[in-house]
Design goal:
There is one protein chain. This protein is an all-alpha fold. The chain has one domain (2-67). 66% of the residues lie in helices and 0% in strands. The chain has three helices and no strands. It has helices at 2-39, 45-48, 54-67. It is elongated. 0% of the residues are buried.
Amino acid sequence: MENLNEALFLLVVGMLTVFVILMLVVAVGNLIILFTNRFLPPPDDAEKGKHIDPKKLAVIVAAVDIVTKGKGKIANIEKIGTQNK
């Protein structure tokens, strides 16, 4: 009976320890998110991708429509890299 009591005590202490540590991780993560959103400005690249030529957009939409036979959907258009030759 003594072993069972000790095992249950260790079980409760271990579960409470894990719970407290996980709550600390969540709290610190939320503080980091709040700090980042409040004091650090967004990157300048966020606005560059919003201006796309309407003709190029129409060509991209038509190409996706042809390749996917009308089942495809464009979620995001972004330039992934350029090579200067």
